C-alpha cells in the first residue's frame, strides 16, 4: 500500500440521508486500487452496521468500527478491544442515575442491546445507526462481545455530561459523536488506534495517511494523520486541527476530494 485514506461516516462521507453514491464509490475504488491506496471507513458505528452499509465492497476496504475498538481487513481482525462484562454493567448503573439521560445502547459484534425501559422513539432513532437492535430484560445475560456504550443526553447538557463522565469513569473515555450523543469506550482506544494498526500491517507511516472527519470522535484520528481534512459542517475544534476545510457533507465533498486525488 502507498496510502491509507480514512473517512468518518456520519457528517463526513455520508449525506443527510445516511447514504452515498455506490457507483461513484465503485469507480473510485478501482482507481484507488491502481494507485495502491487503501480506503478505510473509520466510524463510531458497529461492525455489523458498517458491513451492511458497504455490502459488496467488503474485500476492497478496511473497517475501523466502534471508534477504533474493532479493526478488520478482508475478514481478518487486526485489532479488538472488548469491554469486560463487569465494566459495562457498572457503567450502565452510573448512567441510569443521571436524570437527563434519554437512552443508551450497548454495541456488540452481533447486535446492539437496550433495556425494556427504553423509549420506542429512542429505538427508532438509534436503529438508523445500529443493526439488530434488541431489547433484553437482563444485560448480564448478553452473549456477545461488547465494544462500546452509546448514550444520549439533552443537547443543553451533553458537554457537561461528557466532562462529568471523563472525570468519574475509570479505564473508560466518553466522547461526543453528535449534538446529543456520547460514545463510551476503553480509554486506550480511539480511531487513531485503528489507523496505527493499518499502518503497521502495510509498513506505512502516519504521513501516509489522509483522514476526513467532522466531530470530536475524529479528533485523535485527524491528529495522527499526515493530512487532516474537515468538512464544512465540522465542529470548530476539528477545523482547527485540519490542514484543509472542504465542502459540506451534503455536497459529497469527501468523495469529490478523493476523486481529485486520482484524476
Task: Walk me through what this model shows.
The mean pLDDT is about 95. This protein has two domains: about 5-80 and about 190-260, HAD superfamily/HAD-like (Rossmann fold), CATH 3.40.50.1000; about 85-185, Hypothetical Protein, Haloacid Dehalogenase-like Hydrolase, Chain: A, domain 2 (2-Layer Sandwich). It is of the alpha/beta class and about 260 residues long. It is built from ten helices and 14 strands. The longest helix is centred in the N-terminal third of the chain and has 14 residues, at about 20-35. The chain is globular and about 55 Å long. Helices cover about 35% and strands about 25% of the residues. The chain has helices at about 10-15, 20-35, 45-55, 85-95, 120-125, 160-170, 190-200, 220-225, 235-240, 255-260, and strands spanning about 5, 35-40, 60-65, 70-75, 75-80, 100-110, 110-115, 135, 145-155, 170-175, 180-185, 210-215, 225-230, 245.
